Amino acid sequence: MIWLTGNKGMLGTELSLLLKAKNLSFVGTDRDVDILDAVALENFADGKGITTIINCAAYTAVDKAEDEEALALRLNAEGPGNIARLGAHIGARVIHVSTDYVFSGNGTKPCLESDPVSPTGAYGRTKAEGERRVFSAAPDSIIIRTAWLYGKHGPNFVATMIKLMAAKDEIGVVADQRGSPTWAYDLSCAIADIAVRPDFPAGIYHYTGDGETTWYDFAQEIQRLGRVHGLLDHDCRVRPLSTDQYPTKTRRPAYSVLSKDKIKSQGIPIPHWEFSLQAFFQKDLYL
Ligand SMILES: NC(=O)c1ccc[n+]([C@@H]2O[C@H](COP(=O)([O-])OP(=O)(O)OC[C@H]3O[C@@H](n4cnc5c(N)ncnc54)[C@H](OP(=O)(O)O)[C@@H]3O)[C@@H](O)[C@H]2O)c1
Prior knowledge:
The structure is a single chain. The chain is an alpha/beta fold. The chain has a domain at 2-154 and 182-210 and 257-271: Rossmann fold (3-Layer(aba) Sandwich). It has helices at 10-21, 38-45, 69-90, 122-137, 157-167, 184-195, 215-228, 261-264, 273-283; strands at residues 2-5, 26-29, 52-55, 93-99, 142-146, 149-150, 170-174, 178-179, 182-183, 203-206, 213-214, 237-241. The strands form four sheets. The protein has a six-stranded parallel beta sheet, sandwiched between helices. It is globular, with a radius of gyration of 19 Å. It binds NADP nicotinamide-adenine-dinucleotide phosphate (NAP). NADP nicotinamide-adenine-dinucleotide phosphate is lined by residues 6, 8-12, 30-31, 34-36, 56-58, 60, 75, 79, 97, 99, 127, 146-147, 149, 154. The site of NADP nicotinamide-adenine-dinucleotide phosphate has 24 residues, from helix 1, helix 3 and strand 4.
């Protein structure tokens, strides 16, 4: 039996739907079973024959984390630590989701799983500590780092762009940050594949869409598809901005491309981000 925590978040909702579609036996919880409450976790697991715990619960407000790092640390490190301890106790394998923000983003080559973490903001620090606590309590866990996640069931860069482009004649989008957009559905497929493979080697894996782009080029492609699918009836000028022209509380990584060779070598397919964006428009935006 799979237990999915954080099943009401963007990734958790997508994964719930997929596990259901695949007829996999699972139970899902969100705030109803607080990951900070070790006793509640243990009570929930009791008697259910849990063999895998997939943790999608997290504190994900990147900028807000600068003002409430203690709370973010509890949710992103103490909670995952509780889950990993329980997993080790009941013999369930833990699959935990992490982020590119554990890296500084100052590099020029795709980050490897073996690269040392070097977070520059509060959110990244708390997620890096979560990774450490998961492995310390349950060394046979699997941690999947992802980035630039979008999907139907949460705040979503694609939907935001469509809304802005429909309402305005010109918008500014950052053009000097590079990364790889990741459709929550694709990541869910990867996690579901891993969940049904008990022999999948423990360790850290990177998973994002294949290829790389900038937010600016991502926005341009969203506009193109929005026009093709009749969601936009006029051209909106997209103005390239530098990071300095679009300040945020947490400085965003300039280069957050993750190497996916390790997960690919385990037979997990990774669609190109442009292909997935087209599929997202066809599948999700019309539902
Ligand atoms: N979104 C991205 O761009 C992105 C990029 C890289 C990595 N990630 C990682 O991917 C994972 C999933 O992200 P997401 O965007 O799906 O996150 P999300 O939408 O914020 O979902 C997280 C879920 O966890 C729940 N939760 C919070 N505190 C909890 C607690 N104490 N006990 C139980 N549940 C709790 C949240 O409830 P509330 O909504 O009530 O707080 C929410 O339903 C996270 O680990 C995140 O760090 C995300």
